[in-house]
């Protein structure tokens, strides 16, 4: 996999997040995913999928402001700054976040195995 391929996977992930497309997210996230949100809470894949499936999390805007990609033999690391707007648990949110994601190659394709996001103060 090269940098362009990882950027394509990132784009697919972002589109799936915007659409709350649980099937697409399921295909892109590793079964043993660990995601640390901006509050420090650790989410599993099931937690993330259920937040989309049941409307707990709705993303209305996700604009990539910058992104770096580093590719290794069977893994890659992306660092992406986004402007994000939506709602969580019915409460609206908006802000800039920086996501760090680790993608790894498995027998059935490339998946996000770990991720973390941080709030970027204005």
Automatic annotation (TrEMBL):
InterPro entries documented for this protein: DUF4440, NTF2-like_dom_sf
Pfam families found in the cross-reference section: DUF4440
Top-level taxon of the source organism: Bacteria
Domain spans labelled DUF4440: 6-112
Coiled-coil region list: none
Protein name (database record): Cytochrome P450 oxidoreductase
Species of provenance: Caballeronia glathei
Biological classification of the source: Bacteria, Pseudomonadati, Pseudomonadota, Betaproteobacteria, Burkholderiales
